[in-house]
Every structure is written in structure tokens, then in C-alpha cells.
Amino acid sequence: MSIPVIKAGLSLRSFYIFNSSFGPKEGEEEKKILFYHPQETDIDSKIKDVGLSEAIVKFSNTFTNDESVQAMHTQKTCQLYYQPEPGFWMIMVLNVPFERKTRETGDYNEYHGDDIHDTIYQAVLRQSYKMFRLFLGTFESNLKPGEDLDAVANLIGKLEEFYGKYILHLKLKDCDVLDAFGSVQYLPLNQLVFLRVQNFINMIEATFEPIKQCIFLYDDQVIWSGINPTDLYTIIEYLNGPMFQTSSPGQEQSRKVYIQEQATGQDKVYNFMVCRKVQNVTLCLFLEQVENEQALYDELNAVINPQLSSISVSLGQLPEATSTAKEDPTAPKFIYF
């Protein structure tokens, strides 16, 4: 009778964010911690983990001046480091997969550290920041007093509200090299169909003054986008994830977003990102100010929905769209730089 092999796959051990300048004195170590998952971890363990991360960052600075430490591997864990803004560090600690084996001297764990690829999970860590920044802005911009909170407490509240939900939806075992590139897929179209979509976008922006930018997707493939590629990838990740949910077809999902302008590199605030799904088409509209939100939605329903349905049917009849939809998931993909 064979003995079943006990295996443990890749898993998240901890995820935390800290800023050393918030607790520079001895006895103030707890003030450095802005977010820590799992939240039920005792405070001594949190302080110990943050202190170890600080020591690793300082040690790495003896060899480089750009604070470029990215990962540290031990037998049982892999620690990933990212400094998205000056002074703010994000740390993700992964449990290394292992198998429980037996030998003459007893049972032991055989760890597979090579199964964790730094580039892939560094990209996952960076993407977690980009998602926060898309909807809430930078960490620094949230470091301001709230109604009943001081600046740091306000930032902590925003981090807990966002990452408390975001981390629950991380599918670390499903991450692959495509996550590392952060790329999007464009749908190849002939000129006539592309011009029809472009004319539709131009009509929307000309008819509805509050609408400043648009994204047009078919089966999650990009046909038109007016925003930078980095934020485009983040938005598509959001649309395909559990954080985006629609109660019924054509239902609006409206959120405030911060989009980085390609020309200046500065964040531009859109008070509304309205996402509409009609059949296989997803349309995202970025608006600055809206006086009567419900009236705008009613007008959009009357003007846009019929055309979206018609365009979706036309796209579905194209060989380019049908061949892409039926593509073998194991088929090779090409990445262009």
C-alpha cells in the first residue's frame, strides 16, 4: 500500500506596508506599520517582521544607492520588496511549496524554492499598488487628515479598506509570465470595422460633454483606448476580477479614478468611471463632472445601448473575433515590444 505524499503549494504568508519615518524612536515601532495581513497576527510578530525588512533594506543599501532590493529567499519563504513611493515599502512574503518525504532518519520537508519566480511575483506586488493608485490615488495623497482622523490614521483606514478585500482575491498559483509583462491583447480588425468603432467613440465624446476618454473592449480585447497602457492593463484586470460586479446587463458601475496622463505623467482625476457591458462589448467612459448623474445614465441608455448591441453583433460575425475566441489556451502567444 503506497503512502500518500503530503504536498503544500505556494501560498501567501503575509503582506504588509510600512514607513519607517512614522516611528523613528525606540518604542514607536508600531507606528511604522500602516497595513498588515493577516490582521489577527499579534503586534510583536508584526513589529519583528517590519524590523527584519528594514534591516534587509539597510543592508542592501551598503551595496547600492538606489534601494533596489527586490527579493530575498530562505528555505521556507520568499520575501518580495517594492518601494512605490519614497519611504513607503510594500512587502509580500510567500510560503515556498514543499513535499513531505520519508527517509531512514525520519520524515522531512523537501522545499521547491525554484518554483517561485521573482519577476512574476514582483509584478503581482507592483500591480497591487497600481490598483490602489487607480482608485484612491498615491499613498502620499491620502496622507491628509480626515473628518475625525489624523493624516496617518486616514491613510491606514484607506489601506485597510482596500487591501483587506484585494488580498482575498489574489490567485497566486495562477500567476504566470504574462502577469510579469502586464500586457493587453488587441483585437485585429479591418479598416471599415475599426472606423465604425472610432466614429462611435467620437460621437460619444462630441455628444456628451462630461465624457473625456473612452475604452472599448470586445471579449476583453482592446479595440480603442484613450488612456496610457499601464492604467489600461490595470482597468482590464479590474474588469475581469471579482472587485467588479454588475447586477444586470447594462448596469452602470461608477467609480472615481486617477489616470496618469501620457504627456505630463501627472495624475488626472476623473470623478466617474462608468463601465457598461452589453453582450460581448465593454465600454468604459471617463467623466470629470456630472450635474445630474441619473439623467446622464438615462440618456446613455437611449443613445448608446442600441449602437453597442449592433456593433457587438457585427464584431461577432468577423473571422478575426471568432478565431480569437476559439483560440486554444495552450497555443503559443507572441509578445511585441
From TrEMBL:
* InterPro entries reported for this sequence: Ccz1 (IPR013176), CCZ1/INTU/HSP4_longin_1 (IPR043987), CCZ1/INTU_longin_2 (IPR043988)
Q: Source organism's superkingdom?
A: Eukaryota
The terms describing its cellular component in GO are: Mon1-Ccz1 complex
The UniProt record lists the CCZ1/INTU/HSP4 first Longin domain at 13-137
* Residue stretches making up the CCZ1/INTU second Longin domain: 211-291
Which Gene Ontology terms describe the biological processes this protein takes part in?
A: vesicle-mediated transport
Recorded family membership: Belongs to the CCZ1 family.
PANTHER family for this protein:
VACUOLAR FUSION PROTEIN CCZ1 HOMOLOG-RELATED
Q: Write the protein's name.
A: Vacuolar fusion protein CCZ1 homolog
